[in-house]
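Reopening this ticket.

The earlier resolution said the output was attached, but the attachment link was broken on my side. Pasting everything inline this time so it's all in one place.
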Amino acid sequence: MCTGFVRVPDLTWGWIEHPSQAVEAGRRITAEVITAETRSGQIALSLKALQEDPLIRFADQAGLVRTGTVVRILPFGVLVRLAPDVVGLLHLSELGGGPSATPGRLVAEGEPITVKVTEVDLERHRVRLCAVGRAARN
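Inline output:
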C-alpha cells in the first residue's frame, strides 16, 4: 500500500490561494511521479509537470511594456499578473515613493499597472519587472 501526495507548489502553474482551487477531494487525478520512497510507501506527485510551463510562451516578452494587475502586495514589492498563470515581481525600489514608502501606500491589489518586463528566467521560473511612469499615490 502506498500514499501519494501533491505539494501545493506542484498543483498548478497558476496562482492559487488554497489547494481546493486546483483539486477536489475524492476526485481522480492524473499526475507525474516525482519521487517514490519504498520504505515509507509514499509517492510525491505533480499535476503541473503534465502541463506546459506558461513561461515558455512568455519568454519572448523580455524588454516589452505590458499592463497587468496587482495581485499581491508584499513587504518588498508587488506581484503583477501579466497573463494567465504568469506573475512577475515589481520590487519596491522600482515603485518609487522614496525610502520610507511601503508597497501598500503606492499601489492597491486589483489595480492595473504598466510595467516593463526586464527578465524572464525560465530556470528559476521568475519574471522581473520595472515600473513605467509610476507616480506615488497619496
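Reporter confirms the inline version is readable. The two ends are 60 Å apart (CA to CA). The chain has a mean pLDDT of 87.
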